[in-house]
Amino acid sequence: MKLRHIAALTLGCLIATTASAHDPKTDAPPPMTPEQQAAMAAWQKASTPNERHQQLIAEFAGTWNTKMTSWMDPSAPPQVETGKSVNTAVLGGRQLRMDYSGQFMGQPFQGMGYTGYDNVTGKYFSTWSDNMSTGLFVAEGSYDAAGKVYNYTATMNDPMQNGAPVPVRETMRVVDKDHVTFEMYETRDGKERKSMQIEYTRAK
């Protein structure tokens, strides 16, 4: 992130240098150097939404009714609760914001996340925060066009284990234009198990 800030500052300096060299007599800025042109082209490419961003918005934007199934204890029956997710395109179509409300473990639950595609890294990303934690969950992933599924991996710091890192795998499968299935898997003691499933149905 620091490198991006430095690069942005450098680009700003290049643009400022060009502006300061402006000749008021001719009312036209001087031509940019090859280095300035390359910097401008790189940042334009990095910041311009493309078909990947458009696909995220087309598939997930809108209001969805949810059915959440969670397995806190593998030996016990799962908990099933309902909710609603309102997904909105933000930042000029560069990211998708999710506002989730419902119940979790019998308590009122609110969460907010962002999903997008990073042109620089060539990877999808997903962030999440909610009223049952004080941290930020960040996952990174890819898209499997054949299966219409987004695959993410991350690490979760478990508060019940003094913050021990727990590997997490998530999938977001597009069933059809009105149905999406989210699944979350955790690896504990070397064994992966399914801990959550959310079935999204587009609200009519």
Entry keywords:
alpha+beta, 2 domains, single chain, ten-stranded antiparallel β-barrel, 51% strand, Lipocalin, DUF1579, 204 residues, elongated
Question: How would you describe what is shown here?
Answer:
- Residues 1-21 form the signal peptide.
- This is DUF1579 domain-containing protein.
- Pfam families: DUF1579 (PF07617).
- Keywords: Signal.
- It comes from Agrilutibacter terrestris.
- The protein is an alpha+beta fold.
- The chain folds into two domains: 2-47, no CATH class; 51-202, Lipocalin (Beta Barrel), CATH 2.40.128.20.
- It is 21% helix and 51% strand.
- It has helices at residues 2-20, 34-47, 51-60, and strands at 62-70, 79-90, 95-104, 107-118, 123-130, 137-144, 149-158, 164-176, 179-188, 191-202.
- A ten-stranded antiparallel beta barrel has the order 1-2-3-4-5-6-7-8-9-10.
- The longest helix is centred in the first third of the chain and has 19 residues, at 2-20.
- The protein is elongated and about 80 Å long.
- The two termini are 40 Å apart.
- Mean pLDDT is 89; it is low at 13-22.
In terms of topology, how is this protein built?
Layout: H1 2-20, H2 34-47, H3 51-60, E1 62-70, E2 79-90, E3 95-104, E4 107-118, E5 123-130, E6 137-144, E7 149-158, E8 164-176, E9 179-188, E10 191-202
Antiparallel strand pairs: 1-2, 1-10, 2-3, 3-4, 4-5, 5-6, 6-7, 7-8, 8-9, 9-10
